Amino acid sequence: MEAPAAVLALVLAMTAVGGAALVWFFPTWGAVRHGYEVLSATLVALLAWGAWGSLRAPVRTLEASASAADGRLALQLLLAFTVLSALAALVLALPLPAVLGRVLGVLGTLAGLGAFVPLAAIRATRGGAGGLAQGIAELLLGSLLLGGIWAGMVLGHWYLVERRLSNRYMVTMAWANVAAVAAGVASVLLSGRNPAPCEDLAGAAFETCARTFSPILRIGSMTLVLGLGVLALIALIAGFNVKLAREGGRSIQASTGMFYLAVILAPAAEFAAKVRFY
Question: I need a surface site. Which of 64, 90, 116, 207 has the fewest CB within 10 A?
Fold first, then answer.
């Protein structure tokens, strides 16, 4: 596949799936106004739409190959994820039963998770290390990292809307951020089993691939060094988040600022890891 667009699609899809899972299954359901879910579901729908749009061109390059059917299925599931998340936001914004919106959101999340299977199958067909199982594991771990940090930033902003909201939700999210860092480390380390960009190509194929990547990323283990280095910074931020969330009050705003930094850094770590995915 066209690697740069495919990597972008993976990062957007993982952020959407991880964020959606926390929106619909996190204990904030029923404790905050449904505007929080409306905002989050709308953003998730936009992320999923971006993943679908980014994946279309790479999938076209798979026509007449063994992975063509997997590519089309991944697109269909991402589109279903987009539509169901948008419908969930719409239902919650209207005077309709809130449980219907949650059901639609959960179904959308399942569709997004389902898209990981054909995406990993494409990788397995192309000879990726560990086959289908490792591909799915890399995507799940990446979604925990990206989704956990994204959801923390959105929740932190919601405290500006509901100022009397208990800080226990932010504390839980801060610990989820710690778990997300661990998942990110596992994701980057697993990616080390995959070849660096252009490493397994030769001739014209190598020249085509080389033009799409920075020379730095083509150095053997540089993607691992970059990924783990960025995650070390995110781990430091995660420690501050736990402390600030426990303090509550205005410290929640400081914690949200920390999540801002993590949201900028986390995609860089996953881009470095997923550059090796296909």
Answer: 64
